[in-house]
Amino acid sequence: MKRIEKTIAHGLAVILLLFVSLCSYGQSRQEKTKAIIDKLNIVDVQKMNYEYRLESLKYHAIGNDSVRLVELEKQLTEENFLKVVNEVFEEYLNDEEVDNIYSFLQSSAYDKLFNPAVIFKAIYSHYSYMDDEIDRITNNLDESIRSVVPIFETIPTDRKDGFYLTKDDEHVARDKEIILDDKPSFTSKDILEVKKVSYDGKHSEVSIQFTKEAAQKFYSLTKKNRGRPLAIVLGKQIVSMPTINDAILGGRVSITGDFTDEEIDEMIVRLKEKE
Fold first, then answer.
1. Is pLDDT above 60 for 34?
2. Which of these, 175, 165, 171, 172, lies nearest to 229 by C-alpha position?
3. To 10 degrees, what angle do helices 78-92 and 42-58 make?
4. Measured at the alpha carbon of residue 112, what is the angle toward residues 110 and 115, in degrees to the nearest 5?
5. Which of 4, 45, 112, 264 lies in the 20 to 30 Å Cα band around 124?
6. Sheet harboring 237-240: ordered strands across?
């Protein structure tokens, strides 16, 4: 009886393998290529790679380079990457090689090797103590930052939206009423791009990129006004007032604070409004 059951099980396994083989054989090269790209996340990996490299440059580039970075970022679409990957597959892989890659990706060996729930998870389990220590140190750091750096509270003002230099330096401004310049140094007309950016996985900030001309002007202004606070006014409120510590290249600034996502979204809407 056991021998019969074993024979039946073996037969079913052979039929299953044959069915998978026939299904694979019936698929076109294009379908197999798409399956390979999806399985390996080729498009997402390449896209994230370039997004990371461009993001790190934004805070240092200046002038034409700053504007060029924004232009390059707009090219990072899934459609563009997918087109390039398909062209590369056509150029460098023949039909047999595509078949071999596709077959491997469908095998149990691939699942065991690359499925985080199997091999990688087993490896990570040996370093669980390290994850615990990193989390502990991170939490301690967060607590120390919160205890040292006071949260900026918005200040009412009669000024219209814009970026204003204060009349006094950092130390004087802390101890008396904030007096702003009569006119803003920059307005929404000087902004090329504004967006919400997550900087630690839990909090978000408003990232602002000035135009080429405004970026050059911003560099000169920050170079000449070290030690003076720069007040950012939105909706008759000073929402942020960072102190200028040094000349800022690239024309990129951020609005950080204890803001909700809704408040950040409202600020972005106001910053995008052109007078």
1. yes
2. 165
3. 130
4. 85
5. 45
6. 155-156, 237-240, 230-234, 162-165
Buried/exposed code over 166-187 (b: 16+ C-beta within 10 A; e: otherwise): bebebeebeeeebebeeebbbb
Which residues are within 8 A (CB) of 131 and not within 5 positions of it... i.e. 6 or more apart? Answer: 124
Three-state DSSP state, 177: coil
CA distance linking residue 144 with residue 8, whole number of Å: 66
What pLDDT is recorded for position 121? Answer: 66
Report the sign of the C-alpha dihedral through residues 135, 139, 144, 146, in that order: positive
Dihedral sign for Cα 32, 36, 39, 41, please: negative
Question: 37: how many CB neighbours lie within 10 A of its CB?
Answer: 17
Tell how far CA 122 is from the center of its chain.
29
Q: Which is more confidently placed, 122 or 32?
A: 32
pLDDT band at 210 (very low <50, low <70, confident <90, very high): very high
188 contacts 235 by C-beta, under 8 angstroms: no
Q: How confident is the model over 131-185, as pLDDT tens digits? A: 777 777 766 665 554 554 466 788 999 999 999 999 876 545 555 578 899 999 9
Q: How far is residue 64's CA from residue 138's CA, in Å, rounded to a whole number?
A: 38
Give bridge partners of residue 206 from the DSSP assignment. 196, 255
Widest pairwise Cα distance in the chain? 96
236 secondary structure, DSSP code = T
Burial class of 62 by CB neighbour count within 10 A (0 to 12, 13 to 18, 19+): middle
| H or E segment to which residue 29 belongs | helix 29-40
